[in-house]
Amino acid sequence: MNKALSIFIGVLMSTTAFAQSDPNLGIIPAPVSITRANGNFVLDKTTILINQSIDGAKINDLLNAFIVTKAGFALREAKVAQPNQKSILLTSSGADKLPAEGYTIKVTPNQVVITGSGAGLFYAVQSVMQMMPAKVADKIPIPAVTINDYPRFSYRGTMLDVSRHFFPISFIKKYIDQLAYYKINTFHWHLTDDQGWRLEIKKYPKLTTVGAVRNGSIIGHYPGTGNYLTEVKGFYTQDEAKEIVKYAAERYITVIPEIELPGHASAAIAAYPALSAFPDRDTFVNEKTAWAGSRKGKQVQQTWGVFDDIFVPSENTFTVLNDILDEVIAIFPSKYIHIGGDEAPKTYWKESPFCQALMKEKGLKDEHELQSYFIQRIEKHVNGKGRSIIGWDEILEGGLAPNATVMSWRGEDGGIAAAQQNHDVIMTPGSMGLYIDHQQSDSPDEPVTIGGLAPYQKIYAYDPIPKVLTADQRKYIKGVQANMWTEYIKTTNKVENHAFPRLMALSEIAWSPVDRKDLKNFAEDRLPVHLARLDKMGVNFWVPTPIGQSEKVLNGGDFTIDLKVPVTGGKIYYSLDSSRPSENAFLYTSPIKVTVPKGEKRALRTIVIAPSGKRSVTTETILNNGAPEVKAEAKK
Ligand code: ACM
Questions:
Q1: Which residues, at least 6 apart from 7, have a Cβ–Cβ distance to it below 8 Å?
Q2: Residue ending a domain, choose from 149, 180, 207
Q3: Angle CA(232)–CA(234)–CA(235) in degrees, nearest 5?
Q4: Under which EC number(s) is this enzyme classified (predicted)?
Q5: Residue 636 falls within a domain, yes or no?
Q6: How far is the CA of 429 from the centre of ligand 1 (A)?
Q7: Does the C-beta of 343 come closer than 6 Å to ligand 1?
Q8: How high is the pLDDT of residue 289?
Q9: Ligand 1 atom with the shortest distance to the CA of 343
Q10: What per-residue confidence (pLDDT) applies to 634?
Q11: Is residue 47 part of a domain?
């Protein structure tokens, strides 16, 4: 290469996919270890692809499809390299000695050796794709490096609620593609709830003809200002669900179906009222919202929350639920079947003569024990089919079913208690940022959400292993999950807005060792590149506010505000006159110098606009030089 070209490549490389100084080479989640060496492997048209792995041609296709989009050419596949021929080698030799899902990548000037099998090789290729900078004159310079990598947790999950709002199969696939890219290996599909039953069950067709249709939804935040009398409906056929299972499995993602019981069951009860503890009671008997539609009979719920109606623990109910679970088990090959178990009010069971007689007969001292009886009956059936149940932490109440795994959502206490009882645990505490239906900032620009504040930094700060557990008990913490409930999420765009960048933070706490966590590197070096990629791919995301901007009041007279753009290729615009910034405001190009006269204050307001035009919320910093009012000004 002549000197001019090498300088040219050097200049361009500094603006390519990731900063060469980034110790993690742009990879999310951060690998266990990265050791840089001198030099680069320069991928070009002469590079060949050799696959000696046990994983067949699919992995070649994955890598080559990426190289085509990146470089504009595909690598020629060959069995061996000629002397001095540059190659990318995929191999499973030695992979049996790697940790589960682990891989290694070794880049030298002449060869890239990618070692792994199954999920490990797949993840290695995700990492290679992430560390490849943009091409320069038809060449891609990959830094010489050795990477050893494997996950901290075997369960790295995310839950999507499709009951409150329904999202089509095409979107579920698009979402799964992103999960795979971030090495998330579990998709928990919340298929049933009070507001809609979303899976075809052949033996009980009314579950979808009746249970998948809601005649309206509240307007605005609960309790709402009225009712959109717009039908919300939709369900997945069994063939579609199988298609998702297959699609996910090809990306090393397990789909765990959730069938809610004994509460959150209004949609099933609307379809089959005999499943209720009070079949003749109208659904809206206890409903406090004024706008509800028809008040007669059983209805699929049109508002959000927790409802008294609940499955009756009768033999008929167990027969129906077992039949349903048999069909579910035939569709989903996952070890776990999620049976819900959360927020099941005991009011109807207390009032029901049948339930009280059953408790007496079975020697159950309260309704919590009746719930435990209910869950244990279900567990026995599911275990009989070779599967295990997983449930929300309320399944601890009244006694945990013998083989159950607990999903700890009401803080960490349920997970701690379960681990202390030697039960497996998935940590997903809402209080620690894992509820990604919560708001991402305090700005009034945020869309309506259920409430709560869970910026991605909060997820990033979370360690799923509670310190109070002993070394032995810690082994029961199998992983971590983020949950997206969709009461207030009606569109696929909004699902994506809530998901990203929070799922990237989840991926890092689920995969990377604690001592590899580095929020500054994550937020400032890697996220901007990853968000720009989503932007280009047509995946929506929450545009972060400018890096370095304080939301607290800054005191002084002379200020220099140094900001960084949080999305590569994006722009920051700002105002100093209290107007709401847009692309008509000042473009940020270098640190902003502001002098505030004594006794006065100024409001610096910013907005970030990504290359596609997506916008951040407005962020305000008050610059105060001794003015009496120091409270943040009312935002417009
Ligand atoms: C839950 O959020 N009700 C599990």
A1: none
A2: 149
A3: 145
A4: 3.2.1.52
A5: no
A6: 10
A7: yes
A8: 53
A9: 3
A10: 46
A11: yes
Statement: residue 632 has pLDDT above 70: no
Residue 169 domain-assigned (yes or no)? no
Distance CA 102, CA 195 (A): 41
Q: What is the mean pLDDT of residues 353-378?
A: 98
The answer to whether residue 326 is domain-embedded is no
Residue of the CA atom closest to atom 3 of ligand 1: 342
Q: What pLDDT, on the 0 to 100 scale, is given for residue 2?
A: 41
Find all residues with CB under 8 Å of 480, minimum gap 6, and list them.
Answer: 153, 155, 156, 157, 426, 427, 428, 434, 462, 464, 506, 509, 510
Q: What is the CATH number of the domain that holds 99?
A: 3.30.379.10
Cα dihedral sign, 307-308-314-316? negative
Structural domain span for residue 88: 40-149
pLDDT tens digits for range 471-494: 999 999 999 999 999 999 999 999
Q: Is the pLDDT of residue 13 over 90?
A: no
User: Is any atom of ligand 1 closer than 6 Å to the C-beta of 392?
Assistant: yes
Q: State how many domains the chain has.
A: 2
Top-confidence range, 11-20, 66-75, 226-235, 322-331? 322-331
Domain of 565: which CATH number?
2.60.40
pTM: 0.95
Which residues contact residue 244 at a Cβ distance below 8 angstroms, ignoring those fewer than 6 apart?
A: 169, 172, 173, 176, 189, 236, 255
Report pLDDT digits (tens) over 19-36: 668 999 999 999 999 999
Residue keyed to tokens 């945020």: 446
343 is catalytic: yes
